[in-house]
Amino acid sequence: MKKKSALGILVLIMAMVFTMAGCGSSEEAASASADAGTEAESVEVLVFAAASMQSSLEELEAAYEADHPEVDIVLNCDSSGTLKTQILEGAPCDIFFSAAQAQMNEVEEAGLVIEGSRTDVLNNQLVVITQPDSATAVTGIEDLDKAASLALADGSVPVGKYTRRALMNLGVLDKVDDPAVYTTQEVSAALGGVEISEQGNVSKVLSAVAEGASEVGTVYLSDTYGHENEVKILQTVPYDIAGDIIYPIALVSNQDASEAQQEAAADVLAFLTSDEAKAVYDTHLFDTNL
Description:
Elements: H1 2-41, E1 43-50, H2 54-67, E2 71-78, H3 80-88, E3 95-97, H4 101-109, E4 119-124, E5 126-130, E6 149-153, H5 158-169, H6 184-190, E7 195-199, H7 202-210, E8 216-220, E9 232-236, H8 239-242, E10 245-251, H9 259-272, H10 275-283
């Protein structure tokens, strides 16, 4: 009887060991399955945004991802003209945030803007900048011809186009339908031969002035945020000279996007146009009172 009892206890112990091992395997499998499910739900949202938006969008990106860890916002910041071309040539993009209406219009005319998603979010202002210790004779857009050198974005870049529009309104350049047609060489000639360093986006104009490569330059007011020790503003150009500088945003048709990515993009768009986001834009010197 004792032998049978001992044998029975041994069998029972072995059964319990196998059962516990089986439970452990099941729990591990369930955990692995859950992890795999979480990874599968993670999505990227591709945001193409004007270079002048970079600092504010990086702040908003961090805030959104903190509340939505399953979403990875991927920023591509450059001139709106460059971004427009990339989109039209088929680059995957979920959201386009342009520094001008013209570039967004071209994307919409190509049938790539999701209907009903386009909205105007911000206004900006053109400013003339120099280094903090500069002894430049330039006081603003009206006397750029006094500059020894000027950093200027090309006409395909919105800030370059707005600068040309301001010069047209001041009578420095003849009025045409599209200020972007004026080449850098033509602008230089109109300013009496001022040496112009042509730049591909507004951030590069800012750097050229901050680093002393150019005496003065034209950027947006928002671009000076965080660079107060590197540049000083000579003039904030009035709207009646440079015009309104409106920033539209829209969802872009992305053939490569999954349903989850499309849903995430719509939610990111809603966040970027929310009151919370507008408070950040205000801090970065944009005007949200459209």
